[in-house]
Records
---
Amino acid sequence: MAASNDYLGLSADPRVREAARKAIAEHGTSCSGSRLANGTYTLHLELEERLAAFLHREAAVALSTGFQTNLAVSALLGQDDIVLTDQDNHASLRDAVRLGGAVERVFRHNDTKHLEWLLADTPAGSGVLIVTEGVFSMAGDMCDLPRIAELAGQHGARLMLDCAHDLGVLGAGGRGVPELLGLESSVDLVMTTFSKSLASLGGALAGEADVIDYIRHWASPAVFSASMTPASVAAALKALELVEAEPERRRRVMDNAARLRDGLRGLGYEVGSASTPVVPVHVGDFMTCLRLWRALFDAGVFTGAVIHPAVQHGRELIRISATAAHTDAQLDRIIGAFAEAGTAVGVIGPQGAGR
Ligand code: PMP
């Protein structure tokens, strides 16, 4: 498995499994109701308090999936608001803007000159929200947070960061890109999902207490959709505890990602250079991408074929990701499969001589 987002390898951890089992024994399998109605248990509140404290935020709200968590941001938007959104932002972020009825202005991926130009072009008096991702899900690169935060400050815009792929992994404490770059106080709203490093299902927004309280009462996913199951909450809570207690998992996943990047580059592949667990292997052509994916699958290695519309035409790639649970032997097997499959499909030369 070279495509999992279980970055810290916690979904198989016996302590996380046991926490989920215990929650089922004590609270049953479902809350059968939304957060606003009957679906808020003490467990949900405990998870929110722990997460808010972990992220150094006033408050947090936990919803049933990461996708729904981003959709919940629509409650903060109105038709006079302008949302400046990175071209490569996740579909849930794009959908939230549409659902909120705000004006969406898309800036070229991580292009802060374009963002600056759009900011200068916003009518005075409109509410402006900049939305981007800490680590981009498909290409694994990091947003240019220092410049984006500076621009947000200069133009009085609010800043939301989706930290789905960096929370738990980046920063000494695992608080993601804002911590890594020393810019936590520049980000107004932090989003994370529980389905990646936190080995569960669900998501959360963390920020100012008033904003979070508003989401709790007005966002459709909080009002009209059943809350996280007790097992999901308990697993996320235990995983969060381990994120804090076992920083060596962060070192391991980063070492594993570096080993994958070095190995594939040595074979002649064009590989992304960002120090994150997501390793994009650029192929650049739809059919070649699918053929390579199939050859890897036949060799027993599961990867992600990232094709349009997940990326633009011509930027097709094979996405692999390292986890802290990969052994050296497994990493070498993945690299070995890329050597054989890439040669067979013609993406790399016979001796790893490059395209
Ligand atoms: N944001 C980003 C950046 C994501 O990559 C994902 C999932 N791929 C989500 C949000 C949605 O999270 P979930 O799958 O937990 O609903």
---
Amino acid sequence: MNPSWIPFQDLATPMADVHTKEQRSFNMSRIRGKDTKPEYVVRRMVHGMGYRFRLHRRALPGSPDLVLARHRKVIFVHGCFWHKHRCKYGRVRPATNAELWEKKRQGNVERDRRNLKALRAMGWKILVVWECWTRDRAKLEQRLRSFLEDGTPQNTQPAPR
Ligand code: ZN
């Protein structure tokens, strides 16, 4: 399990009261069950498309969440907050412990960048699926299909701010 995958609701109390309304409803949508976690959503979808994969290969930089060795493709599922996606969830600035969170998040962003670079150098094709993408299943499926069929790398971690 990727340590950066701590769901919002599992964090210590300081975070609890700094959530925006939007973020809170986003979190609530994920509390229903384990299977609604973005990573499971992606796994189930890729599996349903007939692809087989392995999980969290530690031998690879960043232990990608899904590894399709035969296709030389990897998929990461990233939490918007933790990996600083350029979306409303990624832009949330906690009111308390702001510096601490920022340091953690920036550390993740830098680690991601190094890992993606290393994987690319090893010839892997990479798709980063953002947590917020899993809210629109039809679009997510389209994005996964496009990556798996054409191997078009769709996106990477945005440039540092
Ligand atoms: Zn996002």
---
Amino acid sequence: MHRQDADATVTRITGGTPRPPFSRFTFPGHPFPLKLEDFIAKRLSIGRRAARARLLAGEVTVAGESTGDARREVTRFDEVTVSGEILQPSLPRLYLMLHKPADILSATTDPLHRTVLDLIDHPHKSSLHLAGRLDRASTGLLLLSNDGLWSGALTLPGRKVEKSYLVETDRPIPPEAVARFAEGFPFPSEGIVTLPARLEILAPERARVILHEGRYHQIKRMFHRLDGIRLRSLHRERIGPLRLPDDLPPGHWRPLDAAELAYFAELPRIPSEVADPRN
Ligand code: URA
């Protein structure tokens, strides 16, 4: 199971060894990022020395510019040509928001169920991945991108991007739940305690939960610790400063606009050596 958002490196109980959520090791064999000489060698099935010769001969362009820099990094977004032949077409960077309806999987493919990608009609949709997930029954704001550095900066557990959820429960929420959420819940089998979370009780069976992490079924499991309270619904209304717009109906998506992208520009980029190599 892919748990880029649900995984955690923080171990407040055991102090166990953190592991990088993204690494070349996690995604073995994925091509990016690649040095230009390796990219050319691979695509033309030639040796690295022969690739360097093509570079030295001035046959190579990256993003429309001639280059002889063998060590230049190539991403999936760059057009690369050799002697006028396009080895890789350019790919636009995509940053989309989706209003996820219930009963749709937060995945890009699934043999049985409809996925969020089935809701997106875009010529480059196959390049997208999810920047965080919601359970199948959950609704609300979901971000998708083909820029792994961007989504990594949003979803790495250490980044603590705030997320806000509205929940409805099957029973009244006890007032002491507020302190329990703030203290954190131990999950000994995972060797963790959840980070302090804010619970605002809005009505006996309705609350807002604000988290700084995104573990597997986290909110469900936290409520369940309160005498087995179950959720009737869970809706994500906000990620960082980005709210799900009122005019985006369930099942609909749109690109983030420049102002929305600027919200996230402040997030430090993850170093490329721990970046999601789908980049
Ligand atoms: N916590 C959950 O339990 N489910 C979600 O979909 C999101 C957070």
